[in-house]
Backbone:
């Protein structure tokens, strides 16, 4: 038995390495993942819906972007590949996840642009053009809301966040809560039980 969750800070389980292959934005990706990290066996279906349905940045986009709760980095890697000039902050509390993102970024030739950091490693005062997240719903509402209260205000004035959440995991109550907090929220897509939300000021 292990008390590990994918959002453990330092997973104790052995890091069985896996390769996760998927396509997004017309490109093929082959990323390393490992046990103790969220959805290490395959691209998470919610993340897949997000990357399919939300408009990926184009080559002219400079960011900076934030991948909030990056896991092994599928979203950060896709953003960095679509926008080769942009800086992408890949943030997670799980240090094994961050090690994997570093490896994946290096394999993409994007080490200098994908900044892998724990939450406190994001420079103060940096405003994000876009925040992307398949947020850690399973941490519970209180922690999820705290996380979003911390990071959504870091959007640039004209910035936007793209979030995905499962309907069975409370996507609609998350939507309602964001509106109550004063954000403009539109449900941009709904597929396979997942909602893609666009969040603006
Ligand atoms: C649903 S997973 C998504 C992972 C990855 N983006 C993907 O699509 O495969 C959510 C991630 O949020 C991370 N997380 C949990 N609490 C966090 C926090 N307070 N700050 C940043 N990341 C957190 C977890 O460790 C986990 O990797």
Residues:
């Amino acid at each position: 038995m292990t008390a590990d969750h994918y959002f453990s800070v330092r997973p104790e389980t052995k890091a069985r390495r896996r390769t996760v292959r998927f396509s997004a934005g017309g490109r093929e990706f082959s990323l390393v993942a490992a046990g103790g990290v969220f959805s290490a066996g395959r691209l998470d279906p919610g993340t897949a819906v997000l990357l399919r349905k939300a408009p990926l940045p184009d080559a002219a986009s400079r960011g900076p972007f934030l991948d909030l709760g990056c896991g092994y980095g599928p979203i950060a890697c896709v953003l960095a590949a679509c926008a080769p000039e942009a800086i992408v902050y890949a943030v997670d509390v799980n240090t094994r996840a961050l090690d994997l993102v570093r490896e994946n970024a290096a394999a993409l030739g994007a080490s200098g642009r994908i900044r892998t950091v724990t939450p406190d490693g994001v420079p103060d005062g940096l405003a994000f053009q876009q925040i992307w997240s398949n947020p850690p719903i399973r941490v519970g509402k209180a922690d999820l809301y705290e996380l979003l209260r911390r990071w959504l205000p870091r959007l640039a004035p004209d910035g936007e966040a793209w979030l995905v959440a499962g309907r069975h995991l409370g996507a609609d109550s998350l939507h309602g809560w964001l509106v109550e907090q004063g954000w403009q929220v539109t449900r941009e897509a709904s597929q396979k039980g997942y909602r893609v939300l666009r969040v603006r000021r």
